[in-house]
Amino acid sequence: MLKNQNENVTKILVSQEEIEQITSRLAAQISKDYENDPRQVVLLIILKGSVPFAADLMRKLTIPVQLEFMKVSSYGASTKSSGEIKIHLDLNRNDLENLDIIIIEDIIDTGRTLNRLTQLLKNRNAHSVKTCTMLDKPSRREVDFTPDYVGVQIPDEFVVGFGLDYNEEYRSLPYVGVLDPKQYAHPNEL
Ligand code: PRP
Questions:
Q1: pLDDT the model gives residue 113
Q2: Residue 107 C-alpha to ligand 1 middle, in angstroms?
Q3: 136 lines ligand 1 (CB under 6 A)
Q4: CATH number, domain with residue 41
Q5: What is the pLDDT of residues 67-93, one digit of tens each?
Q6: pLDDT value at position 79?
Q7: What would the pLDDT profile of 154-178 be if each residue is shown by its tens digit?
Q8: Which of 177, 113, 119, 166 has the alpha carbon at shortest distance from 141?
Q9: How many helices (H) and strands (E) does the chain have?
Q10: 69 in any annotated domain
């Protein structure tokens, strides 16, 4: 258990002020895009990392939304299960054809998770599926996937905070920071 999480962060990549601006901008954009939507809009929050982002974003929306949660993980390209998504907690609704879903993510890396999840929900006949991510690492993309709403693009650094973890630590930091490589690199790799 860590005593002082801030000490292991070498650089603040997205500050609290920037997060505030990002969530205001995205909430205004989403509210405008869906203001005349006759259907139910659902924020589908992907556990665990997107919880702080979703909490900030939803409180700035001026449209009514419902909340749902899923916990998923994707298999890497090297495994036999490539093309599959593992569902740890599923969405329990039987009215998907009437819903306009916005998937809320903290980060897109390879793009595999959102690519497969979007496809899954479309296969289940959701009326529409869009994606909103706070962080995007386009340089890491392994599948062709473009999110609809992006907070900020970031370089390929190991980031923690504002929902993002390393071994389940650091999620509660109020900003996104770069983790000191000493915290995760093998001694021989330093
Ligand atoms: C992270 C993130 C996405 C996924 C993105 O979740 O929240 O779901 O990885 O990676 P991809 O674009 O390469 O598919 P993670 O599995 O770390 O779970 P967590 O949010 O519970 O930490």
A1: 95
A2: 7
A3: no
A4: 3.40.50.2020
A5: 999 999 887 554 443 457 899 999 999
A6: 40
A7: 999 999 999 999 999 999 999 999 9
A8: 113
A9: 3, 9
A10: yes
What does the alpha-carbon distance between residue 38 and residue 41 come to, in Å, rounded to a whole number?
Answer: 9
CB distance 89 to 44 below 8 Å:
no
Span 112-143, pLDDT tens digits = 999 999 999 999 999 999 999 999 999 999 99
Per the structure, the count of domains in the chain is 1
Tell me, what DSSP letter sits at residue 190? Answer: -
Q: Which of 37, 109, 136, 165 is catalytic?
A: 109
Domain that holds residue 21: 15-157
Does 165 map to a domain? no
Eight-class DSSP state of 161: B
46 pocket-lining for ligand 1 (C-beta < 6 Å): yes
Cis peptide before 48 (omega within 30 of 0): yes
Q: Could you identify the atom of ligand 1 that is nearest to the CA of residue 74? A: 14
In a domain, 4, yes or no: no
Centre of ligand 1 to C-alpha 73, Å, is 7
E strand segments, the chain: 9-14, 40-46, 66-74, 85-89, 99-108, 128-136, 149-153, 159-160, 176-179
Q: Cα–Cα distance between 152 and 109 in angstroms, integer?
A: 13
109 part of the active site: yes
Domain annotation covers residue 95 = yes
